[in-house]
Specification:
- The chain has helices spanning 3-24, 29-40, 51-72, 83-106, 111-122, 126-136, 142-166, 178-210, 214-232, 241-252, 258-282, 290-317, 322-330, 337-348, 354-376, 378-385, 420-430, 443-451, 464-469, 485-497, 511-520, 528-541, 548-567; strands spanning 412-415, 436-440, 455-458, 477-480, 503-507, 524-526.
- By secondary structure, the protein is mainly alpha-helical.
- The chain folds into two domains: 3-390, Na+/H+ antiporter like fold, CATH 1.20.1530.20; 412-526, NAD(P)-binding Rossmann-like Domain (Rossmann fold, 3-Layer(aba) Sandwich), CATH 3.40.50.
- It has a six-stranded parallel beta sheet, sandwiched between helices.
- Helix 20 links the parallel strand 4 (477-480) and strand 5.
- Helix 12 packs across helix 15 and helix 20 (485-497) packs parallel to helix 21.
- The longest helix has 33 residues, at 178-210.
- The chain is globular and about 75 Å long.
- The N and C termini lie far apart (70 Å).
- The model is unreliable at 396-403 (pLDDT under 50).
Length: 569
Amino acid sequence: MDPIFLEITAVLIIASLLSIFLKLIKQPVILAYILTGIVVGPLGLLTIENRDVIRFMAEIGITLLLFMLGLELKIRDLKSVGKTAVATGVGQIIFTSMIGFAISQALGFTLATSAYIAIALTFSSTIIIVKLLSDKKDLNSLYGKISVGFLLVQDLFAIIILIILSGFASSGIESVSAWDIGQVLIKGTALFLLVLILSRNVLPGILKRIARNREVLFLFSIAWAFGVSALVGSPFVGFSIEIGGLLAGLALANSQETFHISSRIRPLRDFFIIIFFITLGMGMVVSDFGRVLVPGIILSAFVVIGNPLIMMIIMGLLGYKKRTSFLAGLTVAQISEFSLILIFLGNKIGHLSGEIVSLVTFIGMSTFAASTYMIMNGNFLYKILSPFLDIFERKNIKSTNGIDIRELKDHIVLAGVNRAGDSILETVLKEGNSKIIAVDFNPDVVANLKNKNAMAIFGDIADLDIINQTKIDKAKIVISTVSDIEDNLYLIKAIKSSASRAKIIMIASNREDAMLLYKAGVDYVVVPHFTSGEYIAKILKDDKVELLDDYRARDIESFTLKENSYAKR
């Protein structure tokens, strides 16, 4: 039997066992892959003879990862990034890189190495953060949307940096001249324009013709990714093969078949990217680890503590409440897989030593572990630290947008306007009841409500200051269409502590959350999936299938009226 087969099998078994363990302690599996590399590499528990083969597989993993990133990153997505995301993303990149560079210099690293480290510290892991926010059901929260927005800004910055640095593979980074930089920028711009032309005018037609045969589409996509990578990585073009994968993905991003391509390639990418993280662990220098331990601890502390502080300062200046700023700040308390790729490529092209790879890998492991617990327990940490966070909040910001609610009494408080909340608000206002005040974290929604002369507050309903501004102690009914169980439980606690006699209606995403809300004192809980299932079952039970045409006509008329209402806003 081929030794390489046995070696890869043993490595994967170790990785799977460590992944199961880390999953049990609620840590990202990326840590398991890096630890696997340390176990089979520096610790020497498994002798790997075919390291070159595994390193080559790691390069394939990075290429496929960047190919998938390019495939899913559509140029039109840039329009969806709000001003807050741009301001926080750019601001965090600037200040983190400047401070990180200063710390690296103080620790005695060279200019070039300090620049690499500083850039690596600016990126946060999109994969880890989105997964954690999804697990917490916070993706649609105010801080969740802001976090996803500035992560997109960081990803775009990372792409630009990777493209530029890969263009200097043939020369030492410290000997780069202005002419070299100009050449790289010209070549990079030309490649990007070529990608735009192909993605709009050539490739969509080709993919449309071969899309009927899924196997051919999959094979073409892989061949395209590797072919472009080989061309871009050739001496004629002068960039790395990994950047070729990114450009290959961008070229296919505008086609209608991207979703199918992504679903077929994702398992292949996941396998090879596991090998990449294992390779990072194998490259750790344990024998001389003391040299990177102290710098690693200092830089990790800066990422875990300094990055959130920078984000809170920026968001505070933009007028956000301290709770939103704090929770969003926690999401930048780790470095990114892009940071590890950056350092890997820097080592590959000769700009960085293996010691620096070990340093940044250690920072990655430390910050992945710490930030995971911080994000998952963000609300608990906020309750402890809340008294000390007032300095990150501008007190002259009026969340009520100038609304006078001092005389408000026996009113309705609506938390969350989108989806079900929108229908509730439309119906209440249509009935002529103006005594309803809405709370939403989307500034565009609040602006639309103001244009309709509806009372609205911009903010997060889980923020005690926002709750108090709604005069919840004098409310008649409190309705929450927010499905986040923690936010709803916090709101219930605030209602009860204010001695309010308001009836409480809430929405839950599942039956378990609904039971928790009932036990907390909610008067009625709507579970959309359960309610819709019961409604359909009742139609079948009462043999009212013949009325479906009437129901359909009624709903279409209602939907049309709402669309016309949106158009007039």
